[in-house]
Amino acid sequence: MKKVLIANRGEIARRVIRTLKKMNIKSVAVYSDADKNAPFVHEADEAVRIGPAPSAESYLVQDKIIEVAKNLNVDAIHPGYGFLSENADFAERLKNEGIILIGPSAEAMKIMGDKLSAKQAVKAYDVPLVPGIDKAVVDFSEAKEIALQIGFPVLIKASAGGGGKGMRLVEKAEDMEEQMGLAQSEARSSFGNDAVFVEKFVTKPRHIEIQIFADNHGNVIHLHERECSIQRRHQKVIEEAPSAILTPELRKEMGEAACAVAKACDYSGAGTVEFLLDGDLNFYFLEMNTRLQVEHPVTEEITGLDLVEMQIRVANNEVLPIKQEEVKLNGHAMEVRVYAEDALSNFMPDIGTLNRYKKPVADYIRIDDAFEEGMEIPIYYDPMIAKLVTWGKTREESIDRMIEAIDAYEISGLRTTLDFGKYVMKHQSFRSGDFDTNFVKHYFSDPTIMHVAQEQEKRALEASLDRIWDDVTQANNQEAISEQLRK
Length: 487
Known about the structure:
Layout: E1 3-6, H1 10-22, E2 26-32, H2 39-43, E3 46-51, H3 62-71, E4 76-78, H4 88-97, E5 100-101, H5 106-113, H6 115-123, H7 140-150, E6 154-158, E7 167-170, H8 176-191, E8 196-200, E9 206-214, E10 220-232, E11 235-241, H9 248-264, E12 269-277, E13 283-289, H10 296-303, H11 307-315, E14 332-339, E15 341-342, E16 348-349, E17 356-358, E18 365-369, E19 384-392, H12 395-408, E20 410-412, H13 418-426, H14 428-432, H15 439-443, H16 449-474, H17 478-486
Parallel strand pairs: 1-2, 1-4, 2-3, 4-5
Antiparallel strand pairs: 6-7, 6-8, 9-10, 9-12, 10-11, 11-14, 12-13, 14-19, 15-16, 17-20, 18-19
Helix pairs in contact: 4-5, 5-6, 12-13, 16-17
């Protein structure tokens, strides 16, 4: 493999380019008009414009991407995440064109891309499933009957897609018809498929996902878990590895179940198997993401592995370079997604210009970002500016280092989720490990509490500065003044 095209943008394009440079593989970037001055465009060995800013006219146009790949004699395409990364039709087209997709087969994508077919596939491997029905429902009467059998509350979920779209929580029977209609409507507009299914709503749910890797030679391993329970609108904001509550025995059991899911669809490459964990530590299969995850850095930090390099080597038909018993679990890693969003206004996007953009620097800090000072955040794409990652020997150290990193991260010109990240890091429920996917609902329903926390911190800082100044003014010599300032 000598040349790889990255069919993506932003921080994931930069991330892939870094590994390609390390492996002495040429990189090709494709970009829209909105990204013509983006760092990833300049960092790639070659870059080609593929269209206007809207993704439907650029990053999602398969013909344009394949044309660039063929014109530049590209060996393989890395799709990153989002856009075409889980598009089975794209995977099939690349196969027919003789271009390697750095990802799983179209068949695996089709099986795991539909939640119902995924459930049916893993049944034979005794992977635990949430109580419910594993077939599509379109008739309201049938759906209500199923819900009554399972017992309320239930979740109505779109069969295709994810990200919380086409999902509705129904707490009582009289709300069933309205919520099913809303779920189907959203599923239809988001995925072109209004198939839904009904399953039991798990109380005190935690979102635990397992990173798996499989090669084309029958080897499947897992790289431990990630805790992804801090979410807004069913989308992750903070991730960590490992989870605060998994025992070694449960970690092993969930890891083996995740590997079974991979075997159920003859998987190859990097994938993530998502589970719900209830208050009694029972786990249930949710879905499989057939791509690299946004939060892969925390897994890299605790294992010391380069997941993008492993993807490339597997796609090149190499054997996995590591066995299950060789996978390390070293320390603890924390990730805060830095979005251009206003957490005080229901996390609404706050697009603008990065008037000031200064990143914290330390050997335990990692930042995967997409922008530089003075750049605008485009309105056309996901508003994530960066992923801020810290590593520590313990979970507590990783959290404390994250707070320090957030304090040192200077961003002005727009609002970000950094303050929310700090709020979470300092919250007792999070620090104790006693939280679930309802954290925002339970502890952030009134966002003005973040103002209170900030005001208390401000007063404490002012009091500390007053004490230092009193000590300095009372000092009689330069040496004493210097000592007080150091303190």
